[in-house]
Amino acid sequence: MAIVGYEFKKNISFPAIWFFIGLCLFFNFLLVNSGINEYANYVASVACELGINLDNEFNERVRNLGEGLYPVQLRLDTTHVENVFQGYTTGYIAEIYIRDLSLSGMAADLMYRKYERLQYAVDQLYLSGAGNTLYFAGATHTMHSYLFGNIMGFLLIQGTILASLIMLLSLCHENVVKTEMVIYATKVGRKVNIAKPVASLVSGIIAYMILAGFTLAVFFYNNPFICIRNSSVSSGFNYIIDGLAGIRPFVTWHGFSVASYLLAYIFVSLGLVLCFGLMAYIIGLLVRNGYIGFMILALVNAALYDLPWRIFGFTVPYFASNFLPGNLVFRMVMWNFWFTDGGPFTLWAHFETVGVLISLVLLAIFSVIAWKRFTKLAI
Amino acid sequence: MLSINNVTHKYGNFTALENISLEFNNGLYGLLSPNGAGKTTLIKLLVTLLFPTQGEILYNGTDIVKLDSEYRNLLGYLPQDFGFYPNYTPVQFLAYVSALKGMGKKEATDKALKLLDLVSLLDVKNKKLRKFSGGMIQRLGIAQAMLNDPKILILDEPTAGLDPKEQVRFRNLIATLAKDRIVILSTHNVFDIETIAHQIIMFKDHKLLYRDTSANLTTTLNGKIFETFNEAEANDHICLTERYDSERSLWRFVCCDNYNGEAKPVVPTLEDLFLFTYHDKVEM
Fold it and tell me: Which has the closest alpha carbon to A70: A41, A49, A50?
C-alpha cells in the first residue's frame, strides 16, 4: 500500500500531466462559455415555479407568465403536447436498418430482437409519462446535445487520453530515469508494476473527476439545471437524429432523469477511463517506452475502429467490435447514443454498459498475462 | 552460500557468458575485466534482472528465481548506470527505496540518516538530486544499496565518479562490510580491489579465466615483468605501461621467454596481470 502511495505521488508530480490538464481546462472553459442558450436558461429559471410535468396545472401557470418573447415561446412549446410514446412502435427502425445495411442471418435476427425489446422500454416510458416532462422545452435537443454530446464527449476523450498518459508515464518513468535496475532488484522488485497500475488508475479517475468537476461546475453555473434535473431525458422535446431511420424519440432502455442520466454517463465514462488505463498498462509493459506506447495505443484504437467493418462488413463480428472501448468512445463522440438502442451500430441492448464490462474483464485478464510475461523479461 | 552452476547467458545468438561456475561465501570478490567481457551480465543474473539461458544460481541450495522476493530481500545492488529522480531529495529517494525493500518507515528513516552521514551527504539531505554532482549521486547509490543491511552486496563500478579521497573511504568501508557478508564488486579499475578483495575473478571471451587471490594471480607473472628506459627494448615485448620517472619515460613490459636484456625485473602487480591478460583488448 505504501508503494501505491509513492507511485501516486510520482504520478501527480509529472509536469506533462498538469500541463495537459491545464490545456483541457482552458479548452473546456472556452467550450462551456461558447454555448449559452438564453431561452434554455429562461426555461430552467421558471421551471422551479412551473414544475416539470406538462399537465393542466403546468399549462395554467404558463398562461400566467405574462408576455415577452420567451414566455410566448414556452407557451407555444408546451401547449397541446401529446405523449410522444403513445402508439409509438419501434419495429420500423429494425426494418430500415436491415434493409439499408443489408443485414441477414443472425445479424438480422438480433437487430429485430433488439427493437422488440426496445418496444417494451417505449411502453414503460409511455406509462411513466416521461415524454410529458419539460426538460428545456424547445431548446431541449440543443442543450442535451451540448451537455451530453459536446461537453461529456470531450471530457471522455480527455479522460481516456489522460488515463493512458498517466499509466504510460508511470510505467516507463523508471526506464527513462534509469531506476529500473535498482527497483527491480529490491524485495518488491517487478511487483512494483502491480502497484503502478493501481496508482495510475486512481490518478486517471481523479484527473477525470478534476476535469469533469471544473467543467461541469462552470457549465451548470452558466446553465442552471437545478430545476429541470428531474425531467426525463426521454422528454418529447428530445430526439435522436438518425441518418437511416430519420428523427425519432430519444428512447433509453431505462427511464433516466437528466440527473441520473448524467451520473450514468459519468460512471460509464469512468469505466472507459479505466479501460484505456488498462490498455496503456498492457502496451506499456510490452514496449516499455511511453512515446512508442502511446503511438501504438492510438494506432490500435484507430485500426479497431475501421478494420472490423472492412474485414467483416455488417456482420455479427463487426457489431461485436463496437463493444471495444475505443469504438464506444468514438461512437459516443460522433453519435451520442449512450443508453439508447445504439442505432445501427449495435445488435444488443445496453451496448455501452456491456461493452465497458466485457472490456474491463478482458483487459484485466490481458493485464495479468502481460505482467506474467514481464516477470520473465530481461531487464 | 551463493553458487553459480554452469551458467550460460545468451542474448539471441550472442553468448555473453559461457558455462560459468563460481561460489561465493562471506568476503569480497572482485570481478575484473574490460568492458564487454560479461561482468554486468553476471551481475544482472545475480540480482535476477536476467535469467540464465542454461544452468542455475543457488542461494543456500535453492534457486534464486524460486526464492524470488525472499532472495532479493537479502540483496543490496548498485548498478553501473545508477538512475535517480531529479526532483527528489536524498531523504525522499532513500524512503522510496526503503519501501521497495520492505522496510518500516521508522527503521527506514533512521537507517537513511545514518547512511547519509556515512557517505557524507547528511548536510545536503534535503537538497534536490538534480543539483548533485556525479560523485554525490554515486555516494547516494552506495547508500541505497546498503539500506537493508544486505547479506549480499553487489556493486557494479561503484567508484566511478568518486574523487580519490572518496575512493579510499569507500574501499575501507567495503573492506569492513565484507567481513560478514558477500560483497561482489565489479570494476575495470584494479586499484579498487587489489588490496581488499579476497578473491579476484577475471573473465575473457565470456568465459571464466581466473578465480584466485590477488597474490596468487600475480605470482603467475613472477620474473616476467621488467622496466626499462629503452623504448625499443620495451616494444620488442608486450608493453604494459609508460610512466615518467626522473623526467624520462619508463616502460614496463612482459617478457614471457627467458629474458637476458638490460631491463630491470620488478614485482608484478594485479594491474600487470590485467594489462597482460587483456593486452589485445585494452588500448594502451
Answer: A41
| Res. B234: pLDDT tops 80 | no
pLDDT 10s digits, A13-52: 999 999 999 999 999 999 998 878 899 999 998 998 889 9
Q: What share of chain A is helix, strand, coil (3-state, %, to 5)?
A: 75, 5, 25
Higher pLDDT, A212 or B223: A212
What pLDDT, on the 0 to 100 scale, is given for residue B283?
45
Q: What is the mean pLDDT of chain A?
A: 92
- Put simply, the answer to whether B144 touches A182 (Cβ < 8 Å) is yes
Q: Collect all residues of chain B within an 8 Å Cβ-Cβ radius of residue A178.
A: 81-83
A107-140: burial string, b at 16+ Cβ within 10 Å, e else:
bbebbbebbebbeebbebbbeeebbbbbbbbbbb
d(CA A31, CA B237): 81
Phi, psi of B185, rounded to the nearest 5 degrees: -120, 120
* CB-CB neighbours of B135 under 10 Å: 16
Domain regions of chain A by residue span? 2-375
- Chains A, B: CB pairs < 8 Å: 81
Contact B69 A185 (CB under 8 A): no
Distance (Å, whole) CA B280 – CA B32: 16
Regarding beta strands B264-265 and B225-228, do their DSSP bridges make them parallel or antiparallel, or are they unpaired?
antiparallel
Mean pLDDT, residues A219-233 taken together = 91
Q: How far from A266 is each of A214, A263, A269, CA to CA, in Å?
A: 14, 5, 5
Q: What residues contact residue A57 under an 8 Å CB cut-off, 6+ apart? A: A51
- Phi, psi at A85, each rounded to 5°: -90, -5
Give the cell for residue B178. 565484507
Which three three-digit cell numbers place residue B204? 575473457
Interface of A with B in 8-47 (CB under 8 A): 10, 13
The whole-number pLDDT of residue A237 equals 94
Model confidence, pTM: 0.89
Burial class (CB in 10 A: 0-12, 13-18, 19+), B26: middle
Classify A23 as helix, strand or coil: helix
The Cα–Cα gap between A268 and B85 comes to 36
Q: What is the pLDDT of residue B284?
A: 41
Cell of A259: 440527473
A186/B83 touch (CB, cutoff 8 Å), yes or no? no
Mean pLDDT is lowest, of A182-186, A189-193, B161-165, for B161-165
Q: Which of B51, B85, B100 sits opposite A188 (nearest CB)?
A: B100
Q: Which DSSP helix (H) or strand (E) runs through A130?
A: none
Per-residue pLDDT reduced to its tens digit, B85-142: 999 999 999 999 999 999 999 999 999 999 999 888 999 999 999 999 888 998 999 9
Work out the pLDDT band at B281, boundaries 50, 70, 90. low
Q: Enter the C-alpha cell of residue A51.
A: 414544475
Residues of B in contact with A184 (CB under 8 A): 47-49
* Angstrom distance (rounded) from CA A357 to CA B109: 43
CA distance B170 to B164: 10
Most confident of A294-308, B89-103, B264-278: B89-103
